[in-house]
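To the wet lab folks,

You asked to see what we're planning to order before we commit. Fair enough. Below is the target structure as tokens, and below that is the sequence we designed to fit it. If anything looks off to you, flag it before the synthesis order goes out.
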């Protein structure tokens, strides 16, 4: 009976792990955090040259002479391979993420992706049906969505993500070839706020990244107090100026 119970518990644990894989925390970084990938690097030296990043899964990471991070092929759909950092401490006001993302492989064979806590966002440059096929994997996510335009292959497209402690992630993608083309979407997953952030690979090699910037958004109360302080200084200056005029 005891042996049977132990076997049963082992099987249950294995089943749970299969459903909810354990994710190692990425390297903690203070905000603001900025990485422009200015140091060319082979995969063997990536962990030395970019020590802030923690890589999950088997993933080739190189930085070319032009300062572009290029990832090899990635497994999974959703993604299971990425190289990322984690904000520490987690801001209480919000987190703003800016990054340039692209893909120069064959259209439809892979994507450019970004891990955001327990979620991964993906889009597919060069893919026409639906155009761009923007997808959000994980809780609160969605299947492939029409971006309204097809992101060009071999182009870095600008992505801006504003996340709040409520778990709301507002996403904006701007076409790197034509800034008039903009795609916006959002998802909500409170479990992803303050989690790891970093380039990810899905499918064939070709994902490319540059100019990762993660900043803290001030608390609304801090902004209000700052405005009150500025108003007070302005009033004090006006009072002093008024007194001088009267004298």
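Sequence we intend to order:
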């Amino acid at each position: 009976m005891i042996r049977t119970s132990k076997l049963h518990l082992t099987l249950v644990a294995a089943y749970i792990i299969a459903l909810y894989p354990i994710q190692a925390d990425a390297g903690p970084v203070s905000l603001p955090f900025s990485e422009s990938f200015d140091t060319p690097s082979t995969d063997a030296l990536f962990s030395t040259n970019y020590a802030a990043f923690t890589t999950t899964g088997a993933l080739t990471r190189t930085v070319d002479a032009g300062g572009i991070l290029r990832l090899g092929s990635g497994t999974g759909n959703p993604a299971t391979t990425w190289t990322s950092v984690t904000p520490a401490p987690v801001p209480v006001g919000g987190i703003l993420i800016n990054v340039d993302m692209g893909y120069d492989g064959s259209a439809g064979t892979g994507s450019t992706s970004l891990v955001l806590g327990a979620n991964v966002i993906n889009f597919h440059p060069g893919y026409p049906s639906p155009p761009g096929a923007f997808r959000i994997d994980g809780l609160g996510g969605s299947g492939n969505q029409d971006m309204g335009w097809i992101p060009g292959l071999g182009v870095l497209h600008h992505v801006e993500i504003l996340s709040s402690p409520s778990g709301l992630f507002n996403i904006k993608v701007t076409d790197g070839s034509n800034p008039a083309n903009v795609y916006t979407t959002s998802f909500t997953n409170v479990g992803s706020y303050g989690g790891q952030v970093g380039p990810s690979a899905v499918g064939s090699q070709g994902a490319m990244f540059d100019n990762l910037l993660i900043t803290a958004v001030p608390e609304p109360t801090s902004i209000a107090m700052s405005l009150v302080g500025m108003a007070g200084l302005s009033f004090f200056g006006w009072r002093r100026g008024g007194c001088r005029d009267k004298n």
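Structural context that might help your review: Confidence is low (pLDDT under 50) at residues 1-24, 221-240. The first strand starts at residue 27 and ends at 29.

Thanks,
Computational group
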